[in-house]
């Protein structure tokens, strides 16, 4: 298909035409800058402005059948790739950005995204998938490379993408049971510090702690506390402490004794290597049970922040998902933590 060419027309005849270059306005001593940018589609109300900046003639692209302007092309791309809980901004220089319309977990179909970006002259850029985002955060942008693109290329995109590839999944409000192990806490030798941290973290994610049970390092006591929360209808159970290989750390054994099927023990995430993930049958259905190492108590960002939002979004996390966290699972412990807007785990 032939490419569009430039032509010169009188400004009065320019409505609907596409500018080939920026139009600059100069106000001596005050401002100098573009009043209209390249690619702008001239509107009736623009004519007076153009005349006031001394433009009686314009260079515009000569329209050709089968060509689509960049703003219209970006809108078509958004209609194809954007799924639930996304808000589209107005086009700006041919680009439309997408922002989260609610707090939730951003999920992106990365293989299909890669296929879209391999079509040529069509680009969709996103932040990393499977991270918790707050309402209003920009998560993606889309545009075409040329000012005008062939309609046929957009139709190829529309045929390729069978379902939206970018969406935000709201987090459910879960009832969380906390089992805190350790004889030093159980017998009152030290004050528990894990509970307040977890209550704060779950509150930020929109969930509520239904209770916290302190147990010694005895396996039957911890297993019984886990079983109690399963019977009470907990949607998620976290067991804190005792996750190392020390002979007094018996939490993994207690989790198994409670009837939990362990999917993964150990994670390629620092902080969080001694993490345990399992599932058990409970009054609320199939309930995730997490063994949390002590680092969750001390570090603002840890394995907790990479796994729990996925579970609250309704995703089943597998051993393969945990293994995949190794790429991006190293926290560099910045002096000022920027989580959740940081590269850790992304």
Please, could you describe this protein's structure?
With 346 residues, the chain is an alpha+beta fold. The protein folds into three domains: 6-61, Molybdopterin biosynthesis moea protein, domain 2 (Alpha-Beta Complex), CATH 3.90.105; 67-169, Alpha-Beta Complex (Aldehyde Oxidoreductase, domain 3), CATH 3.90.1170.30; 175-325, MoaB/Mog-like domain (Molybdenum Cofactor Biosythetic Enzyme, Chain A, 3-Layer(aba) Sandwich), CATH 3.40.980.10. The protein has eleven helices and 20 strands. The strands form six sheets. It has a six-stranded mixed beta sheet with strand order 16-15-17-20-19-18, with helices on both faces. A four-stranded antiparallel beta sheet has the order 7-8-12-10. Strands 1-5-2 form a three-stranded antiparallel beta sheet, with no helix packed on it. A hairpin with a 3-residue loop joins strand 3 and strand 4. Helix 2 (70-81) runs parallel beside helix 4 (151-160) and helix 7 (219-231) packs across helix 8. The longest helix is centred in the middle third of the chain and has 13 residues, at 219-231. It is elongated, with a radius of gyration of 28 Å. It starts with 5 loop residues before the first strand and ends in a 23-residue tail after the last helix.
């Amino acid at each position: 298909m032939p490419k569009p060419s430039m032509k010169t027309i009188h400004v009065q005849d320019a409505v609907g035409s596409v500018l080939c270059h920026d139009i600059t306005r100069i106000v001596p001593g005050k401002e100098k800058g573009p009043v209209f940018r390249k690619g702008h589609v001239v509107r009736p109300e623009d004519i007076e402005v153009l005349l006031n900046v001394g433009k009686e003639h314009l260079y515009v692209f000569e329209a050709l059948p089968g060509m689509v302007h960049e703003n219209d092309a970006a809108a078509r791309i958004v209609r194809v790739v954007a799924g639930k809980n996304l808000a589209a901004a107005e086009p700006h220089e041919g680009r439309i950005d997408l922002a989260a319309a609610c707090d939730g977990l951003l999920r992106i179909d990365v293989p299909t995204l890669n296929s879209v970006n391999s079509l040529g002259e069509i680009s969709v850029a996103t932040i990393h998938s499977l991270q918790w985002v707050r309402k209003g955060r920009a998560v993606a942008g889309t545009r075409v490379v040329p000012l005008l693109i062939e309609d046929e290329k957009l139709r190829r995109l529309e045929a390729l993408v069978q379902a939206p590839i970018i969406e935000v999944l709201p987090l459910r409000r879960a009832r969380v049971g906390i089992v805190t192990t350790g004889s030093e806490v159980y017998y009152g030798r030290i004050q528990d510090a894990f509970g307040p941290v977890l209550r704060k973290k779950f509150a930020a994610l929109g969930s509520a702690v239904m209770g916290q049970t302190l147990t010694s390092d005895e396996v039957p006591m911890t297993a019984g506390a886990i079983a109690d929360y399963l019977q009470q209808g907990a949607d998620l159970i976290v067991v804190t402490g005792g996750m190392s290989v020390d002979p007094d750390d018996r939490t993994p054994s207690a989790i198994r004794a409670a009837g939990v099927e362990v999917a993964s023990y150990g994670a390629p995430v620092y902080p969080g290597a001694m993490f345990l993930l399992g599932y058990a049958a409970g009054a609320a259905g199939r309930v995730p049970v997490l063994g949390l190492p002590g680092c969750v108590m001390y570090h603002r960002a840890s394995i907790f922040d990479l796994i729990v939002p996925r579970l609250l979004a309704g995703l089943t996390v597998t051993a393969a998902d945990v293994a995949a966290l190794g790429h991006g699972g190293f926290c560099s412990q910045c002096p000022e933590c920027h989580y959740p807007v940081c590269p850790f785990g992304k």
